[in-house]
Amino acid sequence: MITFVLSHFIAFNASANASIDDARAIYEKGCAACHSAGVAGAPMLGNKNQWSNRSLKGTQQLTQNAWDGIGGMPAKGLCQTCSFEEIKLAVQYMLEKI
């Protein structure tokens, strides 16, 4: 029984780490070009002041905004091949950094 529980715990942690790695890779592929430097008013990764009002919208609305495009940001940013779920992972990654 202990082996069973331990193996499931390890598998869960491995998938959680994969999501973090995937989210970071998506961010670097499609978001970092603007969100690292604040291009065209993009809120910079980790900048609490720039994200404070935006974060109040919640993950779902921010993901929808990124998917559709908002302000100077084109739909899907620079990740035209990303799925909605991948965009959501990137949004969650950026929110976790504030």
Quickly give the CATH architecture.
Answer: Orthogonal Bundle
Can you give the mean pLDDT? Answer: 87
Could you state the order of secondary-structure elements as H and E? Answer: HHHH
How many distinct folded domains? 1
Helical content (DSSP H or I, runs of 4+): 55-70%
CATH uppermost class = Mainly Alpha
Q: Runs with pLDDT <50, length 5+?
A: 2-15
Major sheet, described briefly? none
Structural class: mainly alpha
Explain what you see.
The structure is a single chain. This protein has 98 residues and is mainly α. The chain has one domain (22-96): Orthogonal Bundle (Cytochrome Bc1 Complex, Chain D, domain 2). The chain is 67% helix and 0% strand. It contains 4 helices and no strands. The longest helix has 34 residues, at 2-35.
Question: What labels describe this entry?
Answer:
single chain, 98 residues, mainly alpha, Cytochrome Bc1 Complex, Chain D, domain 2, 4 helices, 67% helix, globular
Briefly summarize what is shown.
It contains 4 helices and no strands. With 98 residues, it is mainly alpha-helical.
Please give the structural blueprint.
Elements: H1 2-35, H2 48-55, H3 58-68, H4 84-96
